[in-house]
Specification:
This protein is of the alpha+beta class. Helices cover 16% and strands 39% of the residues. It contains two helices and 13 strands, in the order H-E-E-E-E-E-E-E-E-E-E-E-E-H-E. Strand 8 and strand 9 form a beta hairpin. The chain starts with a helix and ends with a strand.
Length: 207
């Protein structure tokens, strides 16, 4: 009886060990030869900018792997009218030798983009049987900035006929956030003139 029980225990341990080995093999096979590094989950970027970030794919297998990258913005059905940032990647197709890295440079262009949240879906297609296709989701948060434009490049004071002149300063906010501004001045010295003769001024703030 003792020998019989001992054999049963050994048999059970053997089954458990075999299952662990099989599970490990299946998991490793599902991961394939490629490992991904440096892929962000979220990117914050203001409007009006062009920004780059880099990601790596490492081939840990014994054979070279061909990789193709296809980035695209997934539109929110409720915000179909919003303009997303432009996305480009270089290179978009490469063969990664065994034991080496493939480096991919993504460019995000928000110069024409609207403010809002966008989902960047990166489709990675490979000839690795263990990992033929991967989808990587990256959230892009585009936030706004004020942008001041003053129509007048300069104001000329003549003062020949009238010692007092009024000049209008047109300030435009071409950005997509509130602009706060302060108008101040600098007196440029001239012989035989003082500040009171040049300008009567009160600081002005606006929004």
């Amino acid at each position: 009886i003792f020998t019989e029980n001992k054999m049963k225990i050994n048999y059970s341990n053997l089954v458990i060990f075999a299952v662990l080995i099989l599970t490990t093999l299946l998991v490793n096979n599902a991961m394939g030869q490629l490992r991904f590094g440096g892929w962000p989950e979220m990117i914050d970027i203001p409007t009006g900018e062009v920004r780059e970030f880099q990601c790596e794919i490492t081939n840990v297998g014994d054979e070279p792997v061909e990789v193709r990258i296809i980035p695209q913005i997934i539109r929110d059905p409720d915000e179909e009218e919003s303009v997303p940032p432009e996305i480009a990647v270089e290179p978009n197709r490469v063969e990664i030798p065994s034991g080496e890295n493939g480096v991919f440079t993504f460019t995000i262009d928000t110069r024409e983009a609207d403010v809002g949240s966008f989902e960047l879906e990166v489709l990675v297609i490979t000839d690795d049987p263990g990992l033929p296709e991967v989808i990587i989701a990256i959230m892009i948060e585009v936030w706004g900035l004020p942008r001041i434009i003053i129509e007048q490049e300069r104001i000329e004071y003549v003062g020949m006929n009238d010692p007092v002149e009024e000049h209008v300063l047109n300030i435009v906010n071409a950005g997509n956030e509130i602009l706060n501004f302060l108008i101040t001045h600098v007196i440029i010295e001239e012989p035989n003139r003082n500040e009171r003769e040049w300008i009567i001024y009160e600081p002005a703030r606006g929004q």
